[in-house]
UniProtKB/TrEMBL annotation:
Keyword Transcription part of the UniProt annotation: yes
Protein name: LacI family transcriptional regulator
Species classification: Bacteria, Bacillati, Bacillota, Bacilli, Bacillales
InterPro entries: HTH_LacI, LacI/GalR-like_sensor, Lambda_DNA-bd_dom_sf, Peripla_BP_I
UniProt keywords, alphabetically: DNA-binding, Transcription, Transcription regulation
Tagged with keyword Ubl conjugation: no
HTH lacI-type domain: residues covered: 3-57
One MF term in the entry's GO annotations: transcription cis-regulatory region binding
SMART domains given in the database record: HTH_LACI (SM00354)
SUPFAM superfamilies, alphabetized: lambda repressor-like DNA-binding domains, Periplasmic binding protein-like I
Length: 334
């Protein structure tokens, strides 16, 4: 049977905390006890592990990460940034897919507590009151990545969604488009739905274009939902010349619908996305889009959580990273 830290302590006739100090800070232990512990480790062939150290210090060096949809390509860059920061700061990640399901999300918080994670990164979803209360109940430090919750003093890292959407629609207007539709996330159900819709309306208003609510259609989070929403939108609004899609995956759904119905992009319709996922430059046509620094958001969220765990507070509560318009092939002047 594999030896435990308790076995070592018993063999050396010392406390478990003394064994832990010998492993992690040997200079703090008197020589006599240090020799006994090292001898016990050798005799018992004890292999210390992170969980054992966690029992002593109440610290596992593990961070829990909640992802709404692991299949969504947006999260690849986000997770890569988190992973690189975690390696740099000597943390490991435990990643869970919530599917935006409340019961599952709350169950994961409980699991994270049981697994002794040091903190949680909550990504890209609305921070419902039930989630906040659950994390507060377990006293787990947490940070929001690619989302925010202005009603709570919770550290967050994201971008200015409204301004990004405004710049996307402004680009279409500057190309000469005046009939601009939108495929939007459901308002009130996602954290970026409202601000991206607000940015769309703001650009139209600024340039004196009448905002027509018929020219917007809502979809959930996937390509196929955007494809179906495009069918509904173009059935009502056949005179549209451009579409602002609330995500790159939505933009791909729109373009696929148009292609299937004999309308080429950008010759007969301009389409702009949001996110700049890796596939945006591989898709045909290559997507014009708003670039979110997903890698940087992921990286900074881990750094911010590390700061919160270490210091009990962060220097910057709500951090907004810069975005930029990336012009490719899916938009053109009319």
């Amino acid at each position: 049977m594999k030896s435990t830290i308790r076995d070592v302590a018993k063999y050396a006739n010392v406390s478990i905390s003394t064994v832990s100090r010998v492993m992690n800070a040997p200079d703090t232990v008197v020589e006599e006890k240090r020799v006994k512990v090292l001898e016990a480790i050798e005799v018992l062939q004890y292999q210390p592990n992170g969980f054992a150290r966690g029992l002593i210090y109440k610290k596992s060096d593990t961070l829990g990460v909640m992802i709404p949809d692991i299949e969504n390509p947006y999260y690849a860059g986000l997770i890569r940034g988190m992973q690189d920061a975690a390696v740099m700061l000597n943390h490991s990640l435990m990643i869970c897919n919530t599917d935006r399901d409340k019961k599952r999300t709350i169950a994961y918080v409980q699991t994270f507590f049981e697994k002794q994670v040091d903190g949680i990164i909550f990504t890209s979803d609305s921070l419902h009151e039930e989630y906040y209360e659950e994390m507060q109940r377990y006293r787990l430090p947490f940070v929001l990545a690619s989302t925010n919750a202005p009603e709570y003093d919770i550290p967050s890292v994201d971008i200015d969604d409204e301004q990004g959407a405004y710049e996307a629609v402004k680009h279409l207007i500057e190309l000469g488009h005046r009939r601009i539709g939108m495929i939007s996330f459901p308002l009130g159900h996602t954290i970026s739905g409202e601000p991206r819709y607000a940015g769309y309306k703001k650009a139209l208003l600024e340039f004196g274009i009448v905002h027509n609510t018929d020219e917007i259609e809502f979809a959930e989070h996937r390509f196929e939902h955007a494809y179906e929403a495009s069918e509904r939108l173009f059935a009502r609004c056949s005179e549209l010349t451009a579409i602002f899609a609330a995500s790159d995956e939505f933009a791909m759904g729109v373009i696929s619908y148009l292609r299937d119905h004999g309308k080429s992009v950008p010759d007969r319709m301009s389409v702009i996305g949001f996110d700049n996922i890796r596939m945006a430059q591989m898709f045909i046509p290559k997507l014009t889009t708003i670039d979110q620094p997903t890698y940087d958001i992921g990286y900074r969220s881990v750094e911010k959580l590390h700061e919160l765990i270490t210091n009990g507070e962060v220097a910057v509560l709500r951090e907004k990273l810069p975005h930029q318009l990336v012009i490719r092939e899916s938009t053109r002047m009319i």
